[in-house]
Specification:
single chain, alpha/beta, elongated, binds zinc ion
Length: about 475
């Protein structure tokens, strides 16, 4: 099968070459439109500054649905609709409070925040001794004897020598996601997790956590502590094992609520049944305004459709923008979208996601077969003037993930990731940290790839059409 596809490509590629100058012109027009006549930054300003953090099930999330639907309506697309999906509703409650107590009356405040999905502490807070670990694997060796009645402090930092910061994140995030469930098995009363942040600062970073199948009565509260706070706590613990940590949080889970994915599309002129999607997630954490994660990805995706129209391009295939709800704490929107697509027998040929921040784009990562990857990398030179060079296989994005299968080519925009985790899921993920030009370059890079995929099709799709 793969060999046939490669053979096909060998015939096909020379023809792609003929119209390269047309492609060069179209990319130039896309980048110029984005940088001189773009809408993405204005949209992001509204989402971030007028609406703010958009946690699933919140009033703000509802406002974001209405706002983006109205904006898509105004673009004159062929169809704009809301796709209903039930989402979890977790609320943070009043601001968390924490201190460490070196000796009775000698306290130092710490910057913490509840992890998404965590239970509250008792109403008067929780005070206990602390045991520091570098990871879940240490718990078993310590055993119940050393853990029972204590707060487990997970303090494995993100690995600084990894150039791909998402890899460093992946190497640490198990502490946040499963730390509480694992520590509870050994009788811990609470969990404090070092924030997933490569730099030292005072912002605690939230994020989703899960108790797995732990019964409700066994669940213990879990919070993130800023990296500065984690360093201090670790230093104090080294000097005084008897130091006590206090924290209080009032978060709560409510029944699921109705929400929506926001979808808009331009119908394809030649192959309307071949669908290309581009998207980001509309929900965000509640601490900042969710500008990088993932307001940026949403407005860039909306901009892809707007720019294709603006530049007078008539897509051959159906191009759809999907603003997914509930990526952060449930992935319900993405799951629902893929479910409905399957029910309707929709043929998704390509799905692109932007969910790595609104920073300078470097390229894309792809989840596809060799034949498609070969076709895509044959377009690399078209991106060279825009300093887009990163075309690698491996990984796409959480929201397009459920569309995997049936030859769908999945991709993720890969911006520079060095500053992403300074802001990720924290109070400082705000509008002023998004650079207008960087955001616009990202939108143009996505639109360029969507244009090329639309024009030439994916290898499988071209094969079917003969
Ligand atoms: Zn995200």
């Amino acid at each position: 099968m793969v060999n046939r596809q490669i053979l096909f490509l060998l015939f096909f590629l020379p023809f792609i070459g003929i119209s390269q100058s047309e492609d060069e012109k179209q990319l130039k027009e896309i980048y110029t439109t984005s940088l001189t006549n773009g809408e993405s930054y204005n949209w992001l300003s509204y989402l971030s500054n007028q609406i703010g953090g958009r946690l699933s099930g919140s009033f703000n999330a509802e406002q974001a649905v209405n706002y983006t639907k109205a904006e898509l309506d105004s673009l004159g697309l062929d169809r704009v609709w809301l796709q209903p999906v039930m989402v979890p509703k977790w609320t943070r409650g009043i601001k968390e409070f924490s201190y460490l107590e070196n000796a009775p009356g000698e306290t130092t405040n710490l910057d913490i925040c509840a992890l998404g999905g965590s239970v509250a502490t008792p109403s008067g807070g929780l005070k206990a001794n602390v045991i520091e670990v570098k990871g879940i694997e240490e718990l078993e060796a310590l055993g119940e004897e050393k853990i029972k009645g204590k707060i487990v402090f997970f303090n494995r930092p993100m690995q600084a020598d990894l150039i791909q910061t998402f890899e460093a994140y992946g190497g640490c995030v198990d502490q946040r996601y499963s730390g509480a469930a694992e520590a509870a098995k050994y009788g811990a009363v609470g969990v404090m997790v070092r924030s997933m942040n490569l730099r030292l600062d005072n912002y605690p970073h939230t994020g989703s956590m899960s108790y797995g199948d732990l019964p409700v009565e066994k669940r213990i509260p879990a919070a993130a502590i800023s990296t500065n706070g984690a360093e201090m706590l670790s230093t104090v613990l080294a000097l005084n094992k008897d130091v006590k940590l206090y924290f209080r949080q009032t978060c709560k889970v409510f029944p699921d609520v109705q929400s929506y994915n926001v979808i808009g599309e331009i119908k394809g002129s030649e192959f309307p049944n071949e669908i290309i999607t581009v998207g980001g997630h509309l929900d965000s954490w509640d601490l900042g305004d969710g500008s990088h994660d993932d307001g940026a990805g949403c407005v860039q995706s909306m901009e892809v459709l707007r720019m294709l129209k603006e530049t007078g391009y008539k897509p051959k295939r159906t191009i759809r923008v999907v603003l997914f709800m509930n990526e952060e704490n449930g992935l319900r929107g993405a799951t629902k979208y893929a479910e409905v697509a399957k029910e309707k027998g929709e043929h998704h040929v390509f799905a692109l996601e932007s969910d790595a921040g609104g920073f300078t784009p470097r390229g894309f990562s792809f989840d596809c077969d060799e034949a498609n990857f070969a076709q895509i990398t044959s377009w690399k030179s078209l991106f060279k003037p825009y300093l887009i060079h990163y075309f690698e296989q491996g990984g796409s994005g959480a929201d397009v993930g459920p569309l995997k299968g049936n030859g769908t080519v999945l991709a993720g925009l890969r911006p520079d990731s060095q500053r992403y985790f300074d802001h990720h899921h924290a109070e400082n993920d705000t509008f002023e940290h998004v650079n207008k030009r960087e955001l616009e370059l990202g939108a143009a890079t996505m639109a360029s790839l969507v244009y090329l995929i639309d024009k030439y099709g994916t290898v499988q799709a071209s094969n079917i059409k003969g």
